[in-house]
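Recall the central idea of this unit: under ordinary conditions, the amino acid sequence of a chain determines the structure it adopts. In this exercise we apply that idea directly, starting from the sequence alone.
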Amino acid sequence: MSGSLSERTTTAIREVLDGHVRGWRAIAPFAGPAVVSSVAYIDPGNFATNIQAGARYGYGLLWVVLLANAVAMLFQSMSARLGIVTNRNLAELCREHFPRPAVLAMWAASELAAMATDLAEFLGGAIGLSLLLHVTLLAGMGVVAVLTFAILLLDRRGFRPLELVIGAMVGVIGACYVVELCVAPPDWRAAGAGLVIPRLADHGALLLAVGIVGATVMPHAIYLHSGLTQGRAPARSMAERRRLARYSNRETVAALVLAGAVNLAMVAMAARAFHAGHSGVAEIGEAYRTLVPLFGAAAAGVFLLSLLGSGVSSSVVGTMAGQVIMQGFVGVRIPIWVRRLVTMAPAFAVVWAGADVTRSLVLSQVVLSLVLPVPMVALLLLSGRQAVMGEMVAGPWAMALAWTAALATVALNALLLGGMAGLVV
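Accordingly, the structure predicted from this sequence is:
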């Protein structure tokens, strides 16, 4: 089979759709979009919120992680389906179907979310590198910037090389947390209780819960997934659209089960390592320094390796999402290096100002949660329109579940803001 790696992947997808390839061989060509999107669910923002959640509240917020991951599966599946059916991404469809003032407001909110996302991703990778190599945070930021640019250049060779590199990084992150759970095994009975018994101990738990939602159900990932599925192998018939949607659903579930397991492992590791005696651990650097005497330098090094992989890969994905958002909403595509420089600016500003880096990471996730209803509601409005989705319009049960999740997110945000207002008064 000749051609580039991306061309060969498209050909392999066509062979599956034509019925020439079946079984396990039929799965591999479809893997990619959900794996790339899943990076958004294991980015450094997750590290910051999950470490604080486990250190302060033990296993008590595991149910939030589980619930947020289930919501993420639903919305990522709907986003991928939208791209497959329409061959448009969510931002493009918003521009086509919504009033211009609403589109401009949505674009502004989405750009804010993209900058908050990149703040967490870029800073997280730089923190990991600076601690791992004992360099300054600014030096770490410079190296992460170079690595991000280098990986983004793979996009010139088509979609597949970038998917494979991101997938390899996801595998490294997952492997690191398998090692961490072996080194610091959690209290499985307490973890099980934390998964199934919802509780919020205080306003701090509420803040972290909203941060976890913002770090797990990511606005930019909802936009990006529809863009990643729209151009790989456009469907030629309704039957092909249905088959593509089925394979996409399977990949989404598999990728987000892995991402969810990593998030649960993060909280469990933090609960096991810090809650009974080090519950005040709140910063990523502090977590690393505490892990060294507790479980050894190797365990702490594995933790930093996972953080570095998370920061670099999610920074790449965040830049890709930013391009989808800008091009879709306003029809403008700027050079990728310009986009990268603009989105890096807030991270450098935080470091120059001497702000609490980990606190900035957590607050960035709260910003994401506050912006999250914008793409969620837009996706639901479009997925429920027969004029947009045709025969593949979302069913009533899926829509009911998705609207419930969206309204619950809005209610959680309102509760958070009300609590903040009470604290200010």
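Residues 420-425 have pLDDT under 50 and may be disordered.
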